[in-house]
What does this fold into?
Amino acid sequence: MKVNNYAFGREGEIEAVKHLKKEGYNILETNWHYGRFEIDIIAMKDDVLAIVEVKTRATDYFGDPEDAVDYLKRKKIIECADAYIEERDLDIDVRFDIIAILKTKEKTLLRHIDDAFLPFEF
It folds into this structure.
């Protein structure tokens, strides 16, 4: 059976939004675009802007889902976040999170990694 990666990824993003709302986050944007790039979720909690990348996988055969957020992906997320902050003229603390989802037929495991990476790594 072939998996529709786009639909599978969107299911993961829906799970991530539900999780964030349950944890008290205010969802500001989903799938916010800057040029060809996208931020999956932009949320706010406790006066901190959370830029959230969601990675959903059906197997951990090739590693944990968060491993797919490599150097280049982090750099693009930071570039998008800068554009979002500048466009809205925000002066706020920002955090970069990853929500890693492993979704099999039997179960769904969701891991929310706060401060998964820092913007000054680049």
